[in-house]
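P.,

For your records, the input lines for the assembly:
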Amino acid sequence: MSQVLIKKASYNYAELRPIIFEMIDVLAPDLITPQARVLIKPNLLMAAPPERAVLTHPLIVKAVAEYVIEKGGKPSIADSPAAGKFAKIIEIGGYQAALKDLDVKIGPFETYVKTDIGEPFGKIEIARDAIEADVVINLAKLKTHAQMLLTLGVKNLFGCIIGLSKPEWHFRTGVDHEMFAKLLVQIYKKVNPSITLVDGILAMEGQGPAKSGTPRHLGVIAGSHDAVAVDWAICNMLDIDPERLHTIRAARYLGWDSLDIQVSGDSFKVTDFNLPQLGTVVFGPRLFQKWMRRHFIQKPVVEQSLCRLCGECWEYCPAKAITRREKQIEFDYDICIRCYCCIEVCPHGALKAVKGWAGELADRIYSKMVH
Ligand code: SF4
Ligand code: SF4
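Structure tokens returned:
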């Protein structure tokens, strides 16, 4: 049986700390043995202050690190950010200040081990710290995601793929959401965190998961030893059919079952959570596909007035679909695979995913037909 615990919470540390301690005690008693090497894996996507809701809140990470230290374990905190210098991320993200009095190591994943995650992917490069830790604690953020609908517990472990291997995997799995979800679930299974906590106190809705998303106060933390189960429970909490989440369908395909989940704690329901517009997989003859890619399906677009030509997006783009012109950037939508990495890495919130005019028109006609 997979137990999911949902607790109402705030970032008031005096109240938050005992809630986190209790959640770990209930969900994973005897998690930490003396001297255990414990990897704490938050979401450190990019440099963003806590009020933007991009990163796992530093006070949640602080409480977990204190728990590990109190039980005699040796915590370290690591992630592989999509963009930006690690030192800047922890400074702007509030980690430096939150962790300053704790004996805890924090840094980016640096080395990897080739690890077999099963067919069809075989051996892939996963962060050594994640594979070799005695215990992994997965600290995800509750956010929307323009490619995968939501980014929760399972997807958070994609950060165990180091640096430039990430866009390479996006490219290899292309616009095939199901294949990408399968990759995510297989990475999750291999890293095998002992517990997953999802920070939904200040969540993100709209065009997440980076600065184009909109912070939304929910005041909740959800946790489980089973990251798929916690993702499933969060979907229910947000009034979203869990089957809409690619990772839930991929996990089910790989043998996971939702029949045996027990959800306890505070009851919580949100009925107006604003989801992102998602990209669509293209089909049909080549010319038709080309037209669809340009005018129908969702694509990344730039708000030129916000773009500072910093180069993060074109350097990161796995399909090399972004070109710098003299005063602006330009997309080649014929080769863009709609991975939305560029939106994730843009430090100035200048990119967002927008449907083509034909897609918008079709949506309007459809909505008139059904209402
Ligand atoms: S869109 Fe964003 S990431 Fe790309 S060059 Fe402009 S500011 Fe930089
Ligand atoms: S342009 Fe953006 S969405 Fe398209 S392939 Fe490059 S990073 Fe992905």
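Two observations worth noting. The radius of gyration is 20 Å. Residues 302, 307-313, 329, 346, 348, 350-351 surround iron/sulfur cluster (ligand 1) (CB under 6 Å).

Regards
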